[in-house]
Task: structure prediction
Amino acid sequence: MRLLVVGTGSMAKSQINHFKAIEGVEIVAAVDTDPIRLTEFADHFGIERRFLSLDAAIAWGEFDAASNVTPDRMHHATSLALIAAGKHVFCEKPLAENYADAMEMTHAAEAAGVVNMVNLTYRNVAPLQFAREMVLAGELGAIRHVEASYLQSWLVSRAWGDWRSETRWLWRLSTSHGSNGVLGDVGIHILDFAAYGAATDIDHVFARLKAFDKAPGGRIGPYMLDANDSFTMSVGFANGALGVVHASRWATGHLNELKLRIYGERGSLEITHRPTDSELRGCLGEDIETATWRNIEVPAVPTNYERFVEAVRTGKQLDPSFRHAADLQKVIDLAIVSEKERRELTLLPPVEIVTVPDLPVPELRNELQVTADLETRPIAGEC
Ligand SMILES: NC(=O)c1ccc[n+]([C@@H]2O[C@H](COP(=O)([O-])OP(=O)(O)OC[C@H]3O[C@@H](n4cnc5c(N)ncnc54)[C@H](O)[C@@H]3O)[C@@H](O)[C@H]2O)c1
Result:
C-alpha cells in the first residue's frame, strides 16, 4: 500500500513508525503547508516526495491511501478532497468540528466506496478489547453503572512542552482555531472507550464544560483561550446503564491516563491505561462477596494502523469507521448544547405523536386517510 502522510506535526511522527513497521506499507510522500516542518519530517524519515499543498499531492496521485494528521479544523476539507480523488482515508480524531461535517464526510466516503477509518487510538488497548468480549459474553451480567475518565496535565506540567509558546497546544485551546477543547480532543477518546468497553451506545447526555483563566485577557497572540479544558458528563446508555464520563487537562499528576470501570450484576471490570502500561482487573463470581479484585491476563490485539492496512488490502471496511466517529461527534455537539442550556439531551430519534382529529360522524373516521392529518412533534435535543 502506497501511503501519503498529510500533516507532519507531532502525531504524524508517532503514526509513521507504526505504519513503517507494517509489511507492504510504503510511505511514498508527505504534505505540509509549513515548509520547515515538512522538510524536517521528510528528511528525518527519508521521504523524497514532498508537497506544500494537498492539491499538488492529489494532482501527482501516485498513492493508494492517505493518513490525515492535520489539525482538527482541516480534517473536513482535506478528507473530502482525498475521497473525491478515490483515495482510502485514515483520519485523525476528532473526525470533524461538528456532526454535520462529520456526516458529510461519512456520506462522501461511503458513496465513493473508499475505506474510511478514524484513529480512535485506545482501541489498541488490549484490556479494552478483552473487557468488551467479557461484557458481550454476559460474564458481568446486566451492566448497571459505568465510570470513565481521561486525565491529562499538560496545562500544569511541562513534560510535553510549553503550551504557552507551542502552536500544537495553542490551537487546542482556541475555538476559533477549530478546537472543541478537551471535549473534542480527548473527550472523543473516552466516550468511545466507555461505550465500546461497555458494549453499548450513549443515548442521553448532560454535560458541564469549563475553560479556566490561563493568560492575561484570556489570549496569547492570535489564540483566544476559550475552548473548554475540563468537562464532566452524566450519560445514559442504550443498555439502560448510567454513567459518568469526565476529562481534564488540569489533572495534576496524570500525564495521560484513561480509566474505565464497568459494574454489572454478576461482576465488575476496571481498565487502566497509562503511557507506560495498561491493565485489566476484575471482581467476578465468588470474589464479589469479599470485594476481591484480580489481574486478568489479555492477549495482544492488532492496532488501528494494522487494521486500516488490512481493510485497504481486502477492500473490507473495518471499525472505527467515519460513521462511528460521526455518531460520537453528535454526543460532543449535544454536550456543548447541554452546557449552554443546562439540560439533558437525547440522541434518540424524535418520537412521532399522532393526533387523530375529532370527527363528528364516527363512520367517517374509518374512511378518512388518518395520515392526512398527522401532527408530528419532536421531543428534545436532536441536532
Ligand atoms: N489519535 C491520537 O491519539 C492523537 C494524538 C495526538 C493528536 N491527534 C490528532 O492528530 C491531529 C494532528 O495533531 P498534532 O498534535 O500532530 O498537531 P500539530 O499541530 O503538531 O501538527 C499538524 C500539522 O498539520 C499541518 N497542516 C495544517 N494544515 C494543513 C493542510 N491543510 N495540509 C497539510 N498540512 C497541514 C501543520 O502545519 C502541522 O505541521 C489532530 O487532529 C489531533 O487531534 C491524535
Summary: Residues 6-12, 31-34, 37, 54, 69-72, 74, 78, 92-93, 119, 121, 167-168, 185 surround nicotinamide-adenine-dinucleotide (CB under 6 Å). Confidence is low (pLDDT under 50) at residues 361-383. The chain has twelve helices and 17 strands.
